[in-house]
Amino acid sequence: MPQVSNEKSDFIQSIELILVSMPFDAGRQERSYSIVESVDAFNASSRGFTHMESLMVKVRTKQGLTGWGEAFGHKSNPATWASLEHIVGPFFIGRHTDIAEAIGEAEYAFHAFGRTGPVHYALSAIDIALWDIAAQQAGVTLREYLEPGARNHVNAYASLVHYAEDPLEVSHHVSQAQQLGFKAFKLHESTPAAIAAARESAGDAALMVDVNCAWSLDGARQAMEQLEELQLLWVEEPIFPPDATAALRELNSQFSNVSAGENHSGVAGLIDAMGSGALSFAQPSVGKIGGISGMLEVRRAGKRLGIPVIPHCFYYGPALLATAQLVALDPPQRHTDGRSLPELEIPFVNWEHTLHSLHAPHQSGMDQHGVVQLPQRHGLGFEPDEQMIETYLVKRLLLI
Description:
Number of strands: 13
CATH class of the largest domain: Alpha Beta
Structural class: alpha/beta
Order of helices and strands: EEEHHHHEHEHEHEHEHEHHEEEHE
CATH topology of the largest domain: TIM Barrel
Helix content: 25-40%
Shape: globular
């Protein structure tokens, strides 16, 4: 892990919490609204979501640097905000910006609160901001700080919302995503008819499904047998609970395309699952797993175990930039069958306004091949439109 030079010793002076809620349109056709959805209202891909929240932290140092981070949120944001305001944020005020020192002390202090959940989401946000600061102190982009020679671009894939298992609707949106330049597609459907419609539209392109823990073990086995001919690159979180290692291992031994990681219990829990043979793809989420520090641990484990690490990323704020920077550390990965693997997950929705230049690459900043160029600014490269923050601000709080 890169270390901050003692010559640039610095301390955290303040932490600002900023919650914004930005409207989007999923582009669902009117006919789909008469169909009952198969996902619950807490799922961010459901039609109940018309705004997406971003819970950001803005960490300022005594030497005048500013680092940005983002915690996983959606409908858990009230709890994550409380964790930042009353526990995690105050803990870091006045502490050294050295990541190993500050994060190590926090991990120990908060260990009794569990390895996932709002406190860990809050810690993830601070961790991202500290890495942003460290790269700025070094005078390089975050990706260069982590891996000299890292790429300046990544390949985006479209993460579609839930279309109520309607084959016509699914086919329509896969085609729309293709026209915008995406070369790989992730669904949030779980029925053979809807997934088959996507495959027909996608052709030979990489196609994945996140079924949101829809099945029992027996149900997953039956469903995945039906889906085998569709050549899905991965089936994400096929069973409940999402980190049931023995059941996932049983499925993966048969189908070799099980993915999970967003909702595993911390770094150790995910790495244990990877080492057990339960997963063919690991999908940690930077705003949940412990920030960039946690992601780097999983990346190292993936290299050791030969398991591709493809981050989960349903964000549009600093966590999106953090994920993109992490993806760029390695050359494009390939599956054992030779297929190029997807890289950066982008929520496939339409935004009336965007918060920064990479907020919605499919609306601007992505070429016809789905390639996204990364910022050259030192650190994370997150430069938000302050007017958009003010327009869509829900609340903010300064901790000093």
